[in-house]
Amino acid sequence: MKVIVFANQKGGTGKTTTVINVGDALAHIGKKVLILDLDPQGHAAISLNLDTEPCVANWLLHPIFNASPITPEIMNQWIRPTRRENLFLLPGSQMTAKAQRLLTIEEKPINYIKDQLPAIRRLGFDYLLFDTPPSTGGLQEMASWAANMAVIVSSLDYLSADGVSGFVEMLKVLQSEKQWRGKLAGVLPTFYDEQTRTTREQMANLQAAFPGQVFTPIHRATVLREASAEGLTIFEKDIKSRSAFEYEDLARRLSRLE
Questions:
Q1: Is the entire prediction scored with pTM above 0.90?
Q2: Which residues does 247 contact at the CB level (< 8 Å), separation at least 6?
Q3: How is the chain split into domains, by residue range?
Q4: What's residue 10's pLDDT?
Q5: Could you give the 3-state DSSP secondary structure of residue 11?
Q6: Which H helix or E strand runs over 121?
Q7: Residue 17: which H helix or E strand, with range?
Q8: Is 3.40.50.300 the CATH classification of the domain at 2-256?
Q9: How many helices (H) and strands (E) does the chain have?
Q10: Cα dihedral 76, 79, 81, 86 sign
Q11: How far is CA 87 from CA 68, 191, 219, in A?
């Protein structure tokens, strides 16, 4: 099972939109995909026309309140199917924030989330995609340490660049102090508009900072906003749109990385 974390230490960069559309694209080529929503806002569920639920909190807190490990049967109680074949969701809610605070109080180690993945692996998923909260506080770090690779999702503005820098520094700490064995898959620019000077400047800055690691950008598009508002992936909304082609290309590139 390939585990990919999508992150930025700034909100509003298009992480959730990216996760659900990459997940759908991977599912379309026959991969069994689970999206795990660690963001307390629970937007992954909303974007897939599902209810927010405390399933992630139940998963995170199970080892604290139960002596027995999580089994695949227990996991199946919390995993929700979507309308898309092969695409599944472990939904979150505001309870995720409370779970994070309890994990901090309990001083759970960096490998806490990774140690809970065996039950998910036994369910036969090909991909596990983490949608992470923008702020640090434990869950983003734990999810990153559990991942094989990280994708930084960056809107092309100055504030998002700070979030990119902060996340990269966190990865360096994980590598040097926690022996993280994963890698940075690349940076995904979002809300791209070649007519805007700021956008062009930020794109050039990313390419200079991450040579050879900047994915083809996702253009700013009304159809993406409409899809999210309607609880649809871009492939359900308009499979022939430029946005659909862009996310399909990203998914295929990620599927080729080891």
A1: yes
A2: 18, 21, 22, 24, 25, 218, 234, 235
A3: 2-256
A4: 84
A5: coil
A6: helix 118-121
A7: helix 15-28
A8: yes
A9: 12, 7
A10: negative
A11: 28, 25, 24
pLDDT tens digits for range 46-68: 999 999 999 999 999 999 999 88
Check if the beta carbon of residue 216 is closer than 8 Å to that of residue 181.
no
CA geometry: angle at 38 spanning 182 and 139, to 5°? 60
202: which residues sit within 8 A by CB, 6+ positions away?
156, 157, 158, 160, 161, 189
For helices 158-178 and 197-209, the axis angle rounded to 10 degrees is: 20
- The tokens describing 82, both together, are 């979507």
Q: Which amino acid is at 98?
A: K
What's the confidence (pLDDT) of residue 137? 67
Q: What's the chain's length in residues? A: 258
Rounded to an integer, the average pLDDT of 11-16 is 90
CA angle 48, 234, 168 (to 5 degrees): 80
* Contact between residue 92 and residue 39 where contact means Cβ atoms under 8 Å apart: yes
Burial of 141 (0-12, 13-18, 19+ CB in 10 A): buried
Q: Which residue has the tokens 């227990």?
A: 74
